[in-house]
Amino acid sequence: MHLQPRARSALDTSMAVMRTVLLAASQNRWLSARVPHYRFTRRTVKRFLPGERAEDALGAAQALRAHGIGAVFTHLGENISEAPEAIRATDEYIALLDQIHTRGLDSEISVKLTQLGLDLSSAQCYGNLKRIIQHADPKGIVWIDMESSQYVDITLELYRRARTAFPNVGVCLQAYLYRTAQDIAALMPLAPAIRLVKGAYREPPTVAYPDKKDADAHFFTLACKLLGGPARHAGVRTAIATHDRELIRRITEFTASAGVAKEEYEFQMLYGIQRPELVRLKREGYRARILIAYGAYWFPWFMRRLAERPANVWFAVRNLI
């Protein structure tokens, strides 16, 4: 069923308001401390989070083997305020890497720099990041998540430093930021690994596209840039992280017309969202991974997941009812 323009406009407006409310909630310390204790919230988050323990995440990754789908693990947490916490987060990732190796999983990891102590010291943060990269499989990728816009410059600075020293490190870039095309161009000489996402933080319209349709259009433009001839010849590894089937259709049509082999890039999706679509892509010959999160500090992450897709909100409301 197609909505009339007026109805579509009203729906877009309500979705924008809902997104703003959810992103504001993700930054609220009072809600973060209390809401996770409600039973309906914990029941809802299970769709997107197999559990709070590393064992839960590892088990979920093992179950994906039947479909030939790999995993990217992330241990939830951000904006660490004490140095021992950053060290514990680093140790958690190193232990996780050991388990990945022991179980023979086709898995990578994705880290937030503020969880590794970026708010305390960029030097300390880089030291923790370096420990993780050195411990990881050199044939895989340690992904660096991109956080809110205030962290973009320092995140890219540390990524450049890491990429100069190590081949097995990648960075996430957000399509809703106006600056991302320039960031891609600046990174190109490093033959970077880039995971392209839409973006899930509360940003002012001065730095990010406020309208979904504009962010989607920019995502497609950036995906074409990353998958085009110059980027591939420069050695760029690209991961397309979206659940948007229309964008996926347009991107696969572009790569087919441009002669890009299916195994030259991969699609990444979140655990619990659009898995049949990822299974379909894998069966058709594309590389595919699911990002599996775990940990007790899931509330801000969960609010951002709800803000990304209205369907996730309706799922949460059904659990509440």
Break the fold down into its secondary structure elements and pairings.
Blueprint: H1 5-26, H2 29-34, H3 39-45, H4 54-64, E1 70-75, H5 83-103, E2 107-111, H6 122-135, E3 142-144, H7 152-165, E4 169-174, H8 180-187, E5 193-197, H9 212-227, H10 229-233, E6 237-241, H11 245-257, E7 265-270, H12 275-283, E8 287-294, H13 299-308, H14 310-320
Parallel strand pairs: 1-2, 1-8, 2-3, 3-4, 4-5, 5-6, 6-7, 7-8
Helix pairs in contact: 1-13, 3-14, 5-6, 9-11, 13-14
- SSE succession: HHHHEHEHEHEHEHHEHEHEHH
Distance between the termini: 26 Å
The low-confidence runs, each spanning 5 or more residues with pLDDT under 50, are none
- Main beta sheet: strand number and arrangement? 8 strands, parallel, barrel
Q: Give the averaged pLDDT, no decimals.
A: 88
Structural Rg: 19 Å
What does the overall shape look like? globular
How many DSSP-defined strands? 8
What is the percentage of strand-forming residues?
Answer: 5-15%
Which strand order do you get reading across the main beta sheet?
A: 1-2-3-4-5-6-7-8
Number of helices: 14
The secondary-structure class comes to: alpha/beta
Helix content: 40-55%
Description:
With 321 residues, the protein is an alpha/beta fold. Helix content is 52%, strand content 14%. It has helices spanning 5-26, 29-34, 39-45, 54-64, 83-103, 122-135, 152-165, 180-187, 212-227, 229-233, 245-257, 275-283, 299-308, 310-320, and strands spanning 70-75, 107-111, 142-144, 169-174, 193-197, 237-241, 265-270, 287-294. An 8-stranded parallel beta barrel has the order 1-2-3-4-5-6-7-8, surrounded by 7 helices. Strand 7 (265-270), helix 12 and strand 8 form a beta-alpha-beta unit. Helix 9 (212-227) runs parallel beside helix 11 and helix 13 packs across helix 14 (310-320). The longest helix is centred in the first third of the chain and has 22 residues, at 5-26. 40% of the residues are buried.
